[in-house]
Design a protein that fits this description.
Elements: H1 4-19, H2 68-76, E1 80-88, E2 91-102, E3 112-118, H3 121-133, E4 137-141, E5 144-148, E6 165-169, E7 172-176
Antiparallel strand pairs: 1-2, 2-3, 3-7, 4-5, 5-6, 6-7
Length: about 190
């Protein structure tokens, strides 16, 4: 295992700790009913989703790279996003963004990450080679290539056991804190 993996996880833990540094409110928020969850859900639904095609020339944002239903679910729970540059290890994705979604007004370890960016073939090859070198697990599905962190080092995993995952397509990359989270990123660029 590369020494960069602990450094990467340390950096991620530091970002999450900084996001949770606000003093917690000693009074719990009012609950409208016993079945209301304080944490947003991103579970699939059968309700139709308003899929909007991006305006030609539009720039991706934290509210446009994920589905409108996901944005609504996150914002209805009081969550907001903070945008950062998208990196794949030490490789900067020049035309990419990483969105951290959470309730930044309260101390918590709950949050979700979504990223998207364009990549040329050379940058994609370098990024994938570095991920493989650093112990990320590679898989494919048709023309798509996935790199998922080793579950032994994952902070959180989805129901299939996948943690942070990159999905590489033709000229683009997606990133989410779980492989299932990639389904919520619908930006086409």
């Amino acid at each position: 295992m590369s020494p960069r993996i602990p450094l990467t996880f340390s950096a991620l833990a530091a970002v999450l700790m900084l996001a949770s540094c606000a003093a917690p409110d000693p009074t719990p928020p009012p609950s409208s009913s016993p079945s209301t969850s304080a944490e947003p859900t991103t579970a699939a639904t059968t309700a139709p989703v308003d899929v909007k095609t991006p305006t030609p020339g539009a720039e991706p944002t934290c509210k446009t790279i994920i589905t409108p239903g996901t944005v609504e679910a996150l914002t209805s729970q009081g969550w907001t996003s903070k945008q950062e540059e998208l990196r794949i290890g030490e490789t900067l994705v020049e035309d990419g963004l990483l969105c951290m979604w959470a309730d930044f007004s309260t101390a918590s370890d709950h949050g979700q990450m979504y990223g998207w960016g364009t990549l040329d073939a050379r940058t994609a090859d370098v990024a994938q080679s570095n991920l493989k070198r650093d112990g990320w697990l590679r898989s494919t599905d048709g023309d798509l290539v996935y790199f998922t962190e080793d579950p032994a080092y994952a902070i959180a995993t989805d129901e299939d056991g996948f943690g942070m995952t990159y999905e590489f397509g033709d000229g683009w990359v997606k990133f989410a804190d779980t492989k299932q989270g990639l389904l919520l990123i619908d930006w086409k660029g």
